[in-house]
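Hi everyone, sorry if this is the wrong subforum. Our group has a chain we'd like a structural model of before ordering constructs, and none of us has done structure prediction before. Sequence below.
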Amino acid sequence: MHSSSTVRTLQQRITQMQPLRLDDSALPTAPGLRQLFPGGALRKGASYSVQGSKQLALSMLAASSASGAWCGIIGYPTLGAETAAALGIALERCVLIPNPGADAFGLCGALSEILTVLLLLPTSSPDRAM
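Answer:
Right subforum, don't worry. Here is the predicted structure as tokens:
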């Protein structure tokens, strides 16, 4: 399997299903979260950090996902489909990589080329000092 050809194929398929809107940089955000962000919305291309609440992190991408955006969740091995769906994440447009291992950041970089919203829950490295 050639990973570069697989990525190109996925990009083409997603582009066909979801047209690009370059003039719109705001992503749909749940009403209860809007006060947390400048302009009341997540911004395409921006990075956000959430510490201590996986539910909050998932809630941040739920409105975008429910509105038709493709999302990815990397590094969350205990996430259940029922939980994701209950938060409003459209499972049919969600890429889940529960155990990315050492490839988490590389996968995040590759998927950022084709998905609208990514959630990365990095694990601490055993050789990293705490």
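For your construct planning: Residues 3 and 9 are 10 Å apart (CA to CA). The radius of gyration is 15 Å.
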